[in-house]
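Before we proceed, please read the two lines closing this message. Tell me what the token row says about the fold.
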Amino acid sequence: LVLYKQPGRIAVITGGNRGIGLRIIEKLLGCEMTVIMGCRDPKSAEKSVRQVVDLDNSKGKLVIEQLDVGNLASVRAFGKKIQENYEKLDILINN
């Protein structure tokens, strides 16, 4: 499987701290993309990602934001933060 480099592209994924979501993040970072990950426990999520991706040497960028999809106030705050910090999104993965 060939992964094409796509620096400058931005992906948002909910979850991603385990299972298939974690592997998707690994591949997106391998494509040198900026990956915004929304999850309930950002510290635990970063630890999980670090187990499969060398974030210190990755050309991709991981941004982890707090998000509880069961809480609409949290969803709104996450969406607002994305809107304020990024002009566009190229990929949205609702995991």
